[in-house]
Amino acid sequence: MIKAKLIKFLEKEGFELNFPDYSSNEEAIIEIIKEKNERLYPALILLLKLPFEYKSLLIHLDKSEIEILNKFILITNKILHLEKIDSTHLNKIIEDYKLKTKIEDKEIEHFRLIFNETINRKQYSQEGFINKQTTLRIKLDLNQALSKIFSPAKIRIMDKIFTHQSLTNTELKYYYRSIRPLIKAISNEDLTNYLKIIESTKKIS
After folding, report:
1. 180-187 and 189-200 helices, crossing angle to 10°
2. 87: which of 4, 80, 110, 172 fits an S-S bond (Cβ 3.0–4.6 Å)?
3. String of DSSP letters for 32-71
4. How far apart are CA 49 and CA 58, in angstroms?
């Protein structure tokens, strides 16, 4: 088995390994419980807050594993209640199967803290992904707009200026002779207003 430490290091370098995915939420819950690794137990809360079939879990777990499952159903239900997140599916399981076990308040707070940290981390990651996609979209739109006005050679020189790269003497002369006049024309306020009127006026054939 590939060490988690190595996988994490490679992912930081941009290298990702593809692993088989779980076919259901129940399968992932069973796998975590059977690992019997307490470091994984906080992940149960993230999975138990989603809908799942309680009966199908019981078939694959022994008595001690069912005790772990029931304990974390109760912990998850309490955390979701405190966070004002719907837990109807858990309430029904707890009521139907009369689940009950003693859980210390400090234990609830411990898992609640990890739960919130995980949710915040996921949200931050998603926002970063959305921002990255938005930036790529803007860049694509900009490139498309530039390509309708400027030649590839002009765009290449403007990109060098935009990224603070030095121009050669030939590029500098080309910029002042062929690019700058176009930029000044496009930046002209009267031209912009004129083009807006052209675009907004109804065309009659």
Report:
1. 60
2. 80
3. HHHHT-TTTHHHHHHHHTS---HHHHHHH--HHHHHHHHH
4. 18
User: In terms of C-beta density within 10 A (0-12 exposed, 13-18 middle, 19 or more buried), how is residue 157 classed?
Assistant: buried
Residues 6 or more apart from 16 whose CB is under 8 A from it?
Answer: 10
- Considering the chain, what percentage of its residues have pLDDT values greater than 70? 83
Domain extents in the chain: 18-124, 150-205
66 token code pair: 């069912």
Query: Exposure of 176 by Cβ count < 10 A (0-12 exposed, 13-18 middle, 19+ buried)?
Result: exposed
pLDDT tens, 32-90? 999 989 989 999 999 999 999 999 999 999 999 999 999 999 999 999 999 999 999 99
Using one digit for the tens of pLDDT, what is the confidence trace for 4-35?
Answer: 777 777 677 666 656 666 678 899 999 999 99
How far is the C-alpha of 109 from the C-alpha of 133, rounded, in Å?
Answer: 36
